[in-house]
Amino acid sequence: MLMTDPLPNSAHHKLLRRMQARRQFVWSSSAGFAGLASAALLSEETSSGGHSQPGSHGPLLPHKAKHCIFLYMYGGPSQMDLFDYKPELQRRDGQAVQIELRRRDVKEGRLLGSKRRFQQHGDSGLWCSDALPCLSRHMDKLAVVRSLWQDSFAHGSANLQMNCGRIVQGYPSLGSWLNYGLGRENQNLPGYVVMLDPRGGPIPGAPNWGSGFMEAQHQGTVFRTSGQPVLDLQPYTLDPLHLQRQQLQALQALDRPFRERHPEASELEARMASYELAFQLQTSAPEALDLSTETRRTQELYGLFDDYPAHRLAVGPATFGRQCLIARRLIERGVRFVQIYSGGGHQQQNWDAHFGVEENLTIHCPEVDRPMAALLQDLEQRGLLDETLIVWGGE
User: Fold this and answer.
1) Would you say residue 75 lies in a domain?
2) What DSSP element (H or E) covers 182?
3) Alpha carbon 86 to its chain's center
4) Helix (H, G, I), strand (E, B), or coil: what is residue 178?
5) Tally of CB atoms within 10 A around 257
6) Which range marks the domain in which residue 56 is found?
7) Is the pLDDT of residue 6 over 60?
8) Positive or negative, the Cα torsion across 318, 319, 321, 326?
9) Average pLDDT, stretch 19-29?
């Protein structure tokens, strides 16, 4: 939102310019608000003697966060129909306004108020619409940020800015920064896991969870929630695990002289790290994704058995619920950063409601409402919520 300052040389204007500069720095530091909040993870690990880089500093204030779960609503959810109640818009519903377009053309349009009913919840009094009835019972656990903005109106570059802090490719994603700064707690699992919507992935694809100019070992690992957890994980031969271990050790021995002569060649080290991780994942990934060890009550909490009259484009809450439950299991096992995408493909298959806001909310809100509420409740009951940062949003 642009405003004209009536006193451009005032002290207020100078202060505003300094604030804008600080805000630009925060936004550029990979994913803006999410990057700022994740500083809690970095400072906490540094102070506790974890992996850190030369020149790093201890925390200015104590922090508790150790993990992050990023619930990414691909397509851009309609905030004024979910959390951002706008009473003035409701009063002006249907009013004609003059709209300035990109090429400075002006045309007439009409304001559209939300068709949803809003109510304040909890001690905090945060607003939430009736589109998310389950999540609305947990509003005191949430902080709603309304000041985010984008440098691009295109979904691909906007996704990159939300995930990597830039509208162009080639920069590390937020999960990669955490993976790099903190290292992995569990050497048998990746520190950064991504789960996609079965309807498709976000544009421009893998750069959203890529490591950019960092080593490839810091990029996100895509987990599938059904079938084989990681594609091409199982070897095509029937070699037992101990023989695979011997093969890896032999390969490392052959590569060691080259690595000693060329320490600047990080690609080889990253390749060997990926081989080692793939070997460990053959046993650790299936165990982490095995929900049969969860109680029936827990599975019901996440909506794994819900069967509601689904829209033809909907997948139902069981898919997102399974992913949220897996996310909880992953952070229990030391995974630092888990990102779950809701929505995929085009048009109404994701949260981009060009073809009808109400229909879009009818498709996607029931898919995520109960699982998100269950994740908050489950983490709190297990004592994990205080050390887990949950970020909800989209481009």
Assistant:
1) yes
2) helix 174-182
3) 26
4) helix
5) 9
6) 12-229+289-393
7) no
8) positive
9) 51
Q: Please, which residues have CB within 8 angstroms of residue 273's CB and are 6 or more apart in sequence?
A: 215, 217
Beta pairing partners, 195? 340
Phi, psi of 200 (to 5 degrees): 145, 170
Q: Kindly report which listed range (109-118, 346-355, 364-373) carries the lowest average pLDDT score.
A: 346-355
| 248, 239 Cβ separation under 8 angstroms | no
Domain count, the chain: 1
User: Does some domain include residue 145?
Assistant: yes
- In this prediction, residue 157 carries a pLDDT of 95
In a domain, 160, yes or no: yes
Let me know if residue 249 belongs to a domain. no
Provide the 3-class DSSP secondary structure of residue 314.
coil
Is residue 292 scored above 90 in pLDDT?
A: yes
**Contact (Cβ atoms closer than 8 angstroms) between residue 66 and residue 47:** no
Beta strands per DSSP E along 95-205: 96-100, 106-110, 118-121, 126-129, 192-195
Tokens of 327: 């996310």
Q: Are 391 and 385 in contact (CB under 8 A)?
A: no
Short-list 36, 34, 64, CA closest to 48: 64
DSSP 190: -
